[in-house]
Amino acid sequence: xxxxxxxxPGGGAAVALDDVEISIIRSLAVQLMELxxxxxxxxxxxxxxxxxxxxxxxxxxxxxxxxxxxxxxYGDPGRSASAKEAxxxxxxxxxxxxxxxxxxxxxxxxxxxxxxxxxxxxxxAGAGGSVLELAPEESRQWLGALNxxxxxxxxxxxxxxEDDNELLLHLPDEDPRKPMVMAYLWxxxxxxxxxSTLMP
Length: 200
Hints:
200 residues, three-stranded antiparallel beta sheet, mainly alpha, 6 helices, 3 strands
């Protein structure tokens, strides 16, 4: 079990984590929540339903990590489009973003918060580490959060494809990107084994 998730009888998953691993995942999840930001403020009337009808932003985020987490819904960056097609795609993306981004942000915040809470609930790790046990729904939240963390780190490292992964594996130890590369690869292993526990 060390370093990878294993399925639990009846559903869910378990992984053994030491104190350093717990600290790394928790710190990254907190940073992700800070990056995503708070939810839309409740309106002045105090109506809790108002948030359901609040419109989100129509422009893509300026931060490249947030652009990766909340990409435009329309348009293929690898395909050239005419000026008219590009303008239509921008308009469709803006409308889609306005009505979906708040919910997407809330879901990503909830997933990151579920990771933090489950780690905080662990007993202090002994010599063999602590065993984190996740119910099926918690596993799905962890999977979403691990994916978001990898997207965020990959964006900061400017990882575009599998060839970049291969190059990053051979970074010298003195390269300042090395710790984040190691975290990126480790989270990828956790994500892959967690996916396998959710397979029927």
